[in-house]
Structures are given as structure tokens and as C-alpha cells.
Fold this sequence. Notes:
Elements: H1 5-9, E1 22-31, H2 35-45, E2 51-54, E3 70-71, H3 79-86, H4 88-108, E4 116-123, H5 126-143, E5 148-151, H6 153-160, E6 167-176, H7 179-192, E7 196-198, E8 205-207, E9 210-212, E10 216-225, H8 231-234, E11 243-252, E12 267-270, E13 277-280, E14 286-293, H9 302-312, E15 321-331, E16 338-343, E17 346-350, H10 356-371, H11 376-382, H12 392-411
Parallel strand pairs: 1-2, 1-10, 2-7, 4-12, 10-17
Antiparallel strand pairs: 3-6, 4-6, 5-6, 8-9, 9-10, 11-14, 11-15, 12-13, 13-14, 16-17
Helix pairs in contact: 2-7, 2-10, 3-4, 4-10, 10-11
Amino acid sequence: MEPQGYYAASTAALPPALPLRGDIRADICVVGGGFTGLSAALHAARTGAKVVLLEAETIGYAASGRNGGQIHPGNRKEQAELEAWLGPQHAGDLWALSEEARALVFAYAAVGCDLKRGLVIAAHNERMAQALAEDAAHLESRYDYHALRMMSRAETAEALGTEVYPAARFDGGGGHLHPLKFARSLAGQARAAGAMLFEHSPAHSIDGTTVRTAGGSVTADHVLLACDAFTGTLVPDVAPYIAHVESFIVATEPLPTDANVLPNDAAVADTRHVLDYYRKSTDNRLLFAGRESYWNVPKDIAPVVRPRMLRVFPQLADVAIEYAWSGTVGITRTRMPHFGRVSPRVLFGHGYSGHGVALTMVGGKALAEAALGNPERFDILARVPPRKLPGGPFLRKPMVTAALTLLKWRDLL
């Protein structure tokens, strides 16, 4: 996997965590050093539990240190859709968890994570503009959520510095941050609470509640799997429920003062299935993500993303791209997180489907609480029915690729 681009270049390194050597006994073993695993380790350690976290590479190495850094309230599916699918009570419980997740991320990222408030969902056509307005009305009337405001074409152009959208919705409850700084901050908080973190320690097998690595093992009362897109490698029975796509991001050089790009400084995501999403960094670069691939990652990412960036911001034709990188996003067929148990003492949570900066916080907390005897939050997440991805182990990639291609065509309608 390529380096983390601008994020790695703009983040102070953590004190190194050594690989696991020898055999350790713990109350909880967390596998995965991304947002979910770090949240689980932090919440468990704060109760006084002995926690060991194993990370295959370095803290925040995969999606948690590579993503767009956008904080989205709610879930990946709209609440009205969840109500029709799961019933009003379960949908309401999921909304409450998402609100808790949003509060957690704002609290944990308050210092040193380049946290900013404001999120815009930009409609790529008139039909989606109407859908955004209807969803805003539903959230206000049903969930007492009053942070949403629709913007006209003119208001959208003024706020974003682009004229490509017919309308947009501003969300004062959303925001954005530097994801790698956030991952490393969570790691520091987990360590301060007493958790032991080991890097370069990939788990290669689980025997009961003993997790084995090349250098040793951790035997725990509970094992929490927080590997997102890579969970199926360790637990093949979970593989049919989790797929991954590669998302591509670029960072420009610092923008000229007269560029008129995102004058409102909010994060932006459009309403396409294969979407564009972007924001400005604290040093005034545009971080722009677009295109997805399930099959491969191009050697040179910048030429893939640059045309999409210039479609939105043609005024940046002479602005150089200084960094380009990719990240693996775990997705589910339902686009909702998949939580469950491999066995009574081995739990997992993954598949935030691009909506994970906030939801991972409550996902990790739910895993920790379940391991410590309070499964209320975990059960709410685990009751969402998972659906297997089609195709089996050999046809899954081609079929998901075909589905992505179909969604790209639908975006043109």
C-alpha cells in the first residue's frame, strides 16, 4: 500500500510501538489499530481492564489514516429508509448511537486534530436536491435535528466556489479533521489509560481466544476484531459479508489567496454513488477525493483524480498536486456496519462503507462494552441484518466491479 501522502507528511510521528515478542495474558485483545480498534482499546482500558492491541503495520496505517476526514451525522442509509427496513424503534436506536458517535469524535478530536465544523452535501442533480430537502424535513420532524439548511444554486456557488451543483444542504452538526492525527491522538489516549499497543504485529490465527503473531501470542478473555476490510483474511466465515474498494485522494499545493475555493471552509460530499468529496486543510490545500476501484490501484493516482477536481474547480488548472494516495474502504452490501460474534468471546465490527470517522467511535465503544458484560450498544448494531455479497470467493471481485460500474452509469442519469 502506498504511503499516506499529505497526512503522513503533516503529522508528528508517534513514539514507536515495538512488535509483540513473547506470550501475554490480557482481559481484552484488540486486533486492528484503526479508529474502531483504538476506540475499543481506549474505552476498555478506562475501566481498568488489561488491554492489548495488535496492529499489523503502524497505528492508523490503513483507512483510518488515509480517508477524507469527514464527520457525517447519522448513518450511511437515510433514516426513513432504515425505518422502513428495520422498524421505527431500531432505526431510532441507530440514530441515537450515531449522535453519540458524533459527540465522541468531537470530544476526542478537540485538541491537535485540525478539527473544523461544517459539512455540505451537494446535490449533483435536481432530483437529489429534492431528496436532500425531504430528508432534512424528516430529520427535523422525527428526530428533532435542526442543524440542516438547504442552499439554493446561488448560495451553494457562493459557499463552495463552484457552480456545478443545483443546490446543496449545509449541516452544522458535521465537520472534518485530520484523520491520521486523530488516530495517533486516540492511540496516545489509549496508552495513557493503560492499554498496551504493539505495531508490526499482524495476527495470523485465532485459536479460541488466543491470537497468534509471528513473534508471540495474546491469550485474552475476549478478542475484538477491528480489521475492517481485512477481517475476512483472518476469519474466512466473515469474508462473504465484507468487500473493499480503493478510494483515491490528492492534495494540492497551498492554494493562491484569490482561488475562491471553499470560502465557507466546510467539508463537501456530493450525492453520486461514486462520489467526489473534498475539504481544505489547515495550511490551505485542497484535499480532493474521487473515483473508486475494486480491482487495482493505478501507479499514478494524480492524473486519475485531477480531471474530477478540475470539473468542480476549473480555477485550479494551474495549481499543482503535491501528494496523491489511496485507501482501502470496507463496504457491506447493506452499506450499514456489520457487527457480530465469531464465537461467544470473539466479536467483530467493520464495514462502515465510507461513513466511519464518527461511527467507529461508538462501534469501538460497543465492542468494549460487550466484552465487559454490557452488550446493549453492541446488540443494536448486531441486529442490523447482514447480507452476503454475491459471487462467492472467485466471482465476488468481478461482480462488485460490475456493480460499481452500474452505479457510475446511474450517476449520469
